[in-house]
Amino acid sequence: MSRSSNHTWTRREFEQRLRAIGAARYHDRHPFHIKLHEGGLNQGQMQAWVLNRFYYQKSIPLKDASLIGRADDIALRREWISRITDHDGKAPGEGGIERWLVLAEGVGLDRDYVASCAGVLPATRFACEAYIRFVREKSLLEAVASSLTEMFAPTLHKTRIAALLEHYPFANDRTLAYFRTRLVQAPEDVAFGLGYVLDHADSREKQEQCLAALSFKTDVLWSQLDALNHAYVTPALIPPGAFVPEVRA
Amino acid sequence: MSRSSNHTWTRREFEQRLRAIGAARYHDRHPFHIKLHEGGLNQGQMQAWVLNRFYYQKSIPLKDASLIGRADDIALRREWISRITDHDGKAPGEGGIERWLVLAEGVGLDRDYVASCAGVLPATRFACEAYIRFVREKSLLEAVASSLTEMFAPTLHKTRIAALLEHYPFANDRTLAYFRTRLVQAPEDVAFGLGYVLDHADSREKQEQCLAALSFKTDVLWSQLDALNHAYVTPALIPPGAFVPEVRA
User: Fold this and answer.
1) What integer pLDDT is reported at residue A4 of this predicted model?
2) Sign of the alpha-carbon torsion through A184, A190, A193, A199
3) How far is it, in rounded angstroms, from Cα A27 to Cα A34?
């Protein structure tokens, strides 16, 4: 059988194409992350990153619950639900969102201010809300595929923990607990998510939709760093109403 | 009667507060616009602006139709429908979107490329889609209030026409037809929109919702220029997949 130019890719070929999107477009390559990991951020810039990234953290359970709410497949729901409890915890004082607030306090931010999301860059909101909406409106397969940036996260988190410990006085076991926990959680999540996508993308059209979904997700992440970089690093133009770091004497 | 701290503002006071948002947050103050109007953009930067702003133009009829689709008030629908035909025209070759494509050709872009929206910055998409969603999901009053950036547009368009004619060889009656037409259309639209908001925001709570809606809309506009500035001016970091201007010999 001769292969047409739009044959269904093999499982291996399709996975390679998914991974290639990470290599080309994942936000570990963004100058803001490079600066973060090189110890180049001042306290205000670090605070801006933590504050804005909180908005992303807080969006995650909303998108995961929206995904479960559309899934007829009970096995998918049973698997996916741990993502919500990972972020929300099972009781006050637990969970990834709580751990992020501990990080926020560690970098000198007021916990309630961060939790209020006042001062978050509009571009952060728009990107995170685009992600939630994508998961609510696209096919379930595309929604799952958009989660696969997690394939690339453990490497980034490992680098980050070492880099933060090396360069920033606020970094310790307590403030970095979010990242350490994700090192364990993300590989479990991605094993299921990747398997699901490889199993269910059974036509070239669906495979291409999955690649587009993953590509979209890298845009969501990248554009958040663009906005941080523009507002707080170069040209350091803070949009009206957004967080203004305190200038320390 | 003594006024509580959350009394309903008078019509005049409320209108002043709406206008104050323009003075503080409208994107005429953004460095990218200042550069545009000073003749400081090179051809690639001008193309990037026209290309990205096309995505905004093409979003407008979608948000206006969504607004009409939620309005029980036939008077509002009759008034609002001209916004759709202003942008879409009544026949091929007519309307604001067509005039924007003429501008795009004038700055050296391929019409079909622009119309395809390939190469548009993700942040542009996220901002414009946030606007459409806002109009679909918030109250009708807030949806109308979010259109009131048009109060500030005619001044900007007047400045722009003069500035483009002075500084850029591509500028002529044909390529600038979009802006000239808006000089006539926007004041008509805003007279109705402002009247509607002043009439229907009959409590302090609704007035504050309208201020927030207008403020949100200024964020939508401002964040688009932030993204353009970051990608094409400073630090000139083009996100993966976005338009890359041709380098001319």
Assistant:
1) 59
2) negative
3) 10
Looking at residues B230-240, what average pLDDT do you find?
98
> Which residues are CB-contacts of A146 (< 8 A; sequence separation ≥ 6)?
A131, A134, A135, A138, A213, A214, A216, A217
pLDDT tens profile B170-193: 999 999 999 999 998 888 889 999
- Within 10 A of B103 (CB to CB), how many other CB atoms are there? 25
Q: Which residue of B has its CA nearest to A21?
A: B240
Structure tokens at B118: 């390939």
Backbone angles phi, psi at A69, to 5 degrees: -65, -10
The single residue listed with the structure tokens 């995170």 is A128
- pLDDT over threshold 50, residue A51: yes
Residue A233 DSSP class: T
Q: Where are the extended beta strands (E) located within chain B?
A: none
CA B73, chain centre distance (Å): 25
Q: Position of tokens 């607990």?
A: A177
Check if the beta carbon of residue B123 is closer than 8 Å to that of residue A230. Answer: no
For residue A202, how many other CB atoms are within 10 A of its CB? 11
CB-based contact A126:A64 (threshold 8 Å): no
Cβ <8 Å between A241 and B219: yes
CB A141 within 8 A of CB A210: yes
What chain B holds in terms of domains, given with CATH numbers, is: 11-232 (1.20.910.10)
Alpha-carbon span A235 to B155, nearest angstrom = 27
Please, which pLDDT band fits residue A3 given cuts at 50, 70 and 90? low
Residues of chain A that touch chain B, judged by Cβ-Cβ distance less than 8 Å: 24-25, 31, 121-123, 125-127, 129-130, 133, 215, 218-220, 222-223, 226-227, 229-231, 234-235, 237, 239-241
Residue from A124, A126, A225, A233 to probe the interface with B (highest B Cβ count within 10 Å): A126
Q: Span B152-161, mean pLDDT?
A: 93
A78: its two tokens = 């049973």
- Please give the C-alpha separations between residue A181 and each of A100, A174, B135, B159, B233, in angstroms, as whole numbers: 11, 11, 39, 54, 39
Residue B58 is encoded by which pair of tokens?
A: 């093409």
- Is residue B87 within 8 A of residue B59, CB to CB? The reply is no
CB contact at 8 A, B233 and B32: yes
Find the distance separating the first CA and the last CA of chain A, reported in whole Å. 74
What are the tokens at A175? 């403030």
Please give the torsion angle defined by the CA atoms of residues A41, A87, A140 and A202, in that order, rounded to the nearest 10 degrees. 80
| Helix, strand or coil, per DSSP, at residue B42 | coil
Q: Which amino acid is at B75?
A: A
